[in-house]
Design goal:
Elements (H helix, E strand, L loop, with lengths): L4 H25 L3 H8 L3 H4 L1 H13 L3 H8 L1 H21 L3 H28 L6 H29 L4 H4 L1 H15 L13 H18 L11 H23 L13 H31 L4 H28 L2 H20 L7 H27 L7 H36 L4 H35 L9 H7 L3
Amino acid sequence: MPNAPGHGGKVLISVLLGTFTVSLNNSALNLAVATLMATFEASATEVSWVVTLFMIAMGMTMPLTGYLADRFGRRRIYLLGLWGFLAGSALGASAHSLAGIILARGLQGMAAGLMIPLSLSLIFSAYPSDQRGRASGVWGFAVMIAPAVGPSVGGLLLEVSHWRALFLMNMPFALLGLACGYRYLPVEAANRRRRFDLPGFVLITLGMGAVLFSLSRVETLADLGRANVLLPLAAGLLALVMFVRTERRALTPLLDLTLFTHRGYRLSVVLACLQSIILFGCILLVPLWMQNALGLGPLTTGLTFLATALAASCCSPVAGRLIDRYPPQWCIGVGLLITMTSLIGLATLTAATPVWVIGAWMGLRGLGLGGAYLPSSTVGMRDLPEPNVAQASAMNNMARRLASSLGIVALSIYYDTTVRAALGQGITYPEASAAALHHAFLALAAITVICLPLAWRLGRAVTAPARVPEHDPKTVAARRPQ
């Protein structure tokens, strides 16, 4: 049963502190790439592992959260993740080599892989179904405000201090999150007899790791033909296919794939994947547009993203309340329409466009993001049986990361191929870049159009939810203590 509202607020604050710590650290560290290259005399490829290993480690750890939460309790695993992130921050701050920093980021990624899927699960357990939208909206505020302030804080620390300060700044938030977590997060009974699905773990870990690793190394069409990309990509996809077949036969699967029989959850995952392509596609395309086509600097580019993050963080709590009170398809649909409008606006930019207009389109995109992105996932999971939320959140996160990685690769290849062809025809680089990005933004707007009927179907599905029956033989078998 959900906790009392007062205690629910304390649980929410405890989870927010941990989530804010992870998001703030990632957004601030992105600014340190050039500094780390100069400090350790390393190449951009070597330093990129500071970001890449975090993402791979997080993707490989997420599948474990459902099992670990059932086996040892959500509170214990979440706090273990927060301790791990704190340890990774201390290791990064004391590192004397690039290898030490990369190792610290790997540890942080594993910790984040435990924390992020359990965040919504802990919040949902503290609120009744009709209040979960509001609670997740507040959680979304922290998720989106951290990337807004992170680059500014990181840039200031790099200006007045040392790159080690980017790791040290996490520690007060992590320590406060631990203090609140031990005091307010409820202790749960652990299922000590839960069996570990070793074949499923090996397959999903190898599959996610290999696919994310190979996709992170693709920038041009030629890269797809290289053996060090093609072989791990093929092996990873094969492992994922085998994982699905293995889990469907397992009595105690690592991930309960029968959750996809819940129509609302299934639609929410598809919507989340499509919106992730739009989200990360803009993160790729907007800097290319502003710096390559318009010749603007990194600071100006960063300020436009600040407009997006601030608008999204302000809109998210409002959207959370709306999906609790009204049919959710209206809020999500309006958010998607706003997103589509902003993408069409970005596609019409020219070299003569004032910077404030770009910022306005990006701020509008933030409003659409806050109204549709997180609410889609919340709506799909809020009516699931509470013990399944951790696994549902993990599968949602993994699917989004795979989809966004594929989307970034597709957009990168399109941009590179189109620009090269235009340069071969004698077109200048700014003009070639502008033409390629114009069509890429329109393609993202087309994806938004595809999302609209899905959002309507999602709202209809959760209005009359088809819950996974507790007596479903497959579900019971999947949960049966061994």
